[in-house]
């Protein structure tokens, strides 16, 4: 139901006063003219709805679409239900249509003839491959330490966090470096292999230049990191370009690092950063219970497998 406006109440009061005291006195009291009062008295039929302002929109326009243009638009829309505004306008222009794009847009909106866009195909993720034992596949990535955390004499320096996560146990090995290159990646790999208690079969990384030359000018030549993997007999798996979710476990750990470590810590030197990072990873991350592990910590899961040969599944 339409609401009663303040203007309608004003007109009703005006008419009632004019009927009781006359049009002249009503015009003086309400500060209007007699013609205004007579016009609304003629329109008033006893209901307040008759005092509503009528639309002043014209019934026609000298530049409105002709019957031939309307028929052309309807015929073309029937044959091209999914075409967008610009493509649809171009096809109309090729058949003699002379109107502008805004004019066509207004006509399509008014006539509810806008394009019917088909739904985008739904993304169906590939079934996740569950690892069966530690070392079957390890995700490796590099995190740039936020500049806001580096203070004091080290303010203009850059620090990097190398991270490796075992997909089975979620056990994490981290190391601090002051550069990110294929050389530091090789150093990290050597330290990871020595620190992890089981043989590593596969290392999974993104396509960064610190790991591979896949998108470089010398892509046929393996990087120092890849050569080291070959010498150790470890398979190197590269994720799809621009798809960080394929390295999701290590990416998620970096997000948690921002929340639980970098948001509350500052580093005055590289040695200070390296020490704090190792303490945080040993005390916090590897000893923190996780839901995918049945609310066991990565350290407990790894120890249980080494001691009893059991899984968390």
Automatic annotation (TrEMBL):
Entries under Pfam families matching the protein: rve (PF00665)
Lineage of origin: Bacteria, Bacillati, Bacillota, Clostridia, Lachnospirales
Entry-linked InterPro entries: Homeodomain-like_sf, Integrase_cat-core, RNaseH-like_sf, RNaseH_sf
One function term, GO molecular function aspect: nucleic acid binding
Gene3D superfamilies registered for this protein in UniProt: Ribonuclease H-like superfamily/Ribonuclease H
Domain Integrase catalytic span(s) in chain numbering: 130-306
Single biological process term from Gene Ontology: DNA integration
Name listed for the protein in its UniProt record: Integrase catalytic domain-containing protein
